[in-house]
Amino acid sequence: MMEGAMKLSASGRITVSVLAAIGLVVTVPAAALEEDQHQPMYIEADAAELDEKQSTSLYLGNVDVTQGSMRILADEVLVHHKQDRRVQKIIAVGHPVRYRQRVEDDPDEVKGRALRMEYEADRDELTLIDEAVLIQGEDRFASDRIVYNRITDRVTAGTSAQGRERVKIRIEPETEPDGEPQAESAP
């Protein structure tokens, strides 16, 4: 059984170590903006239902969630709160749900879409489920399940993320200003 490991540089270029037939693990040195997790979260929707006893809030219709540079657009969002009213978990459903966020030292945003997304605040982890796609720059990952941990800067996809499908990847070579692919230095 082979395991996959890939590294995503700040410029979005991917260096392939081993590509697995059954899964993928990606290290993303270009981390999500650290200050985003310390910003207040704003939610807009057509309707909202709050349940203080269950510590949940449900937002319906054209839901827009923002926190710093992070933005999630969905048809429906369920937020689980902790006792101190901080966000514990967000479950977003849509056709599709869309995600985007700026990353440190990179002009390209990380973008994602899926039919369902789950965000675990304590782990700072976003899981894209069903028809999942994650894009940074020209590089693109597609599978039925992709997990993006913003603390450890790792992306796991395919069966290594408990998915059912293989991972589909498009890797664009980094180009020089003249449009030619960049030559690699000898070690």
Automatic annotation (TrEMBL):
Keywords from UniProt, A to Z, are: Periplasm, Signal, Transport
Please list the GO terms describing molecular function: glycolipid transfer activity; lipopolysaccharide binding
Q: Where is this region: Disordered?
A: 157-187
Query: Spans of biased composition, class Basic and acidic residues?
Result: 163-173
Give the matching InterPro entries.
Answer: LPS_export_LptA, LptA, OstA-like_N
> From its record, what is one biological process in GO terms?
lipopolysaccharide transport
Compartments annotated for it: namely: Periplasm
- Predominant place of localization: periplasm
Q: Where is the Organic solvent tolerance-like N-terminal domain?
A: 42-152
A GO cellular component annotated for this chain's UniProt record is: outer membrane-bounded periplasmic space
Record family assignment: Belongs to the LptA family.
Q: Which NCBIfam families match?
A: outer_YhbN_LptA
Function, as annotated, reads: Involved in the assembly of lipopolysaccharide (LPS). Required for the translocation of LPS from the inner membrane to the outer membrane. May form a bridge between the inner membrane and the outer membrane, via interactions with LptC and LptD, thereby facilitating LPS transfer across the periplasm.
The family database entries (HAMAP family) matched by this protein are listed as: LPS_assembly_LptA
What is its quaternary makeup? Component of the lipopolysaccharide transport and assembly complex.
Name used for this protein in its record: Lipopolysaccharide export system protein LptA
Question: Source species, please?
Answer: Halochromatium glycolicum
The opening ranks of the lineage are: Bacteria, Pseudomonadati, Pseudomonadota, Gammaproteobacteria, Chromatiales
UniProt lists the gene as lptA
